[in-house]
Amino acid sequence: KQKAKSSNEPLSTCQTDTKKKHPVKVGNRPEVPALNGNRNVVKAKSTNKMDNGSAEDNPPLAQPKSKKVATDKNINGTKSDGKGRKGKKKNGSILKEKGDIKHKRRKAKEHGEQPPKETEIWFDDVDPNDIEAAIGPEAAKIARRNLGLETGQSKPSVEQVLVKEKAFEGLTRAVAMDCEMVGVGPKGEDSIVARVSIVNQFGKCVYDKYVKPTEEVTDYRTAVSGIRPEQISTGEDFKTVQKEVADILNGRILVGHALRNDLKVLFLDHPQKKIRDTQRYKPFKQRVKCARPSLKLLCEKLLNVQVQTSEHCSVQDAQAAMRLYTLEKKHWEAAVKNKSNNKNCK
């Protein structure tokens, strides 16, 4: 107390007690204990001054920063909680990805590259998400639109799904065939061919002819076959049609649904290793959970289109079978190849 009076700087009793209990040492100041578990440091103004009353040589104790504050600063130096910091990093990566996409697009324009054409990817049996990752969003958009998967898009027509627009119209390595039949015999239970249709791999019709009946027709089955008397009365001779069809099928992969019936009425055969029957393909059976699925069921479940809603059309049925084949072509052909290799090994 006498020392304080001489320096004209009175000290409170509380301050005097603090100095007695916790003397301040220069260069080694102890940290004031945290109160109630908090890490905030209490500032002691009176203890920062020396006995001579000068505070310049001994600046106030620096308040230590908590670990939470240190870790809550993001790259930009702003404070945020754990979630905010994480989100900032995520946003940064997203911005980086967007920048990479813009850079790729700009680079493509500089090299004169054009976005993928619809005709180049429509029949690829690849998931649109994979197309987007490999080629880009424009290609994926085309794929989704053609498959009728694009959000907010009106449902595509049957023709749009089954036929590839502006595609090659000639014969291809694989062709699909379908026949319409009429009934002969006492009750019209026996069948003869009335119409033959063949399409190429892109759904383009390459052959379509009505066939003059070789026997008296007792049931035209118009409700199903769509055949009328005037259509087949002026049709092509059976032998001519048979030869023309045989020439087209020779050496090619034949696609169809229940092809055994079509080949039977034409009195033709075809190598089993070159037949792709959508009714007998096991993965299709498993997907629709049916041992002998109809073409209508397969198209509804796998292509999301309605066929054979009224009178059948052999052209459309052949297109539907071909579209189912191209949908699974990669895996189907691989399975056929493996099966052939296993037989050769034995």
Automatic annotation (TrEMBL):
<protein>
    <recommendedName>
        <fullName>RNA exonuclease 4</fullName>
    </recommendedName>
</protein>
<keyword id="KW-0378">Hydrolase</keyword>
<dbReference type="InterPro" id="IPR037431">
    <property type="entry name" value="REX4_DEDDh_dom"/>
</dbReference>
<dbReference type="Pfam" id="PF00929">
    <property type="entry name" value="RNase_T"/>
</dbReference>
<dbReference type="InterPro" id="IPR013520">
    <property type="entry name" value="Ribonucl_H"/>
</dbReference>
<keyword id="KW-0540">Nuclease</keyword>
<dbReference type="GO" id="GO:0003676">
    <property type="term" value="F:nucleic acid binding"/>
</dbReference>
<dbReference type="InterPro" id="IPR036397">
    <property type="entry name" value="RNaseH_sf"/>
</dbReference>
<feature type="compositionally biased region" description="Polar residues">
    <location>
        <begin position="1"/>
        <end position="16"/>
    </location>
</feature>
<dbReference type="GO" id="GO:0006308">
    <property type="term" value="P:DNA catabolic process"/>
</dbReference>
<dbReference type="GO" id="GO:0008408">
    <property type="term" value="F:3'-5' exonuclease activity"/>
</dbReference>
<feature type="domain" description="Exonuclease">
    <location>
        <begin position="173"/>
        <end position="334"/>
    </location>
</feature>
<dbReference type="InterPro" id="IPR047021">
    <property type="entry name" value="REXO1/3/4-like"/>
</dbReference>
<dbReference type="InterPro" id="IPR012337">
    <property type="entry name" value="RNaseH-like_sf"/>
</dbReference>
<feature type="compositionally biased region" description="Basic and acidic residues">
    <location>
        <begin position="110"/>
        <end position="120"/>
    </location>
</feature>
<dbReference type="GO" id="GO:0006364">
    <property type="term" value="P:rRNA processing"/>
</dbReference>
<dbReference type="GO" id="GO:0005730">
    <property type="term" value="C:nucleolus"/>
</dbReference>
<keyword id="KW-0269">Exonuclease</keyword>
<feature type="region of interest" description="Disordered">
    <location>
        <begin position="1"/>
        <end position="121"/>
    </location>
</feature>
<keyword id="KW-0539">Nucleus</keyword>
<comment type="similarity">
    <text>Belongs to the REXO4 family.</text>
</comment>
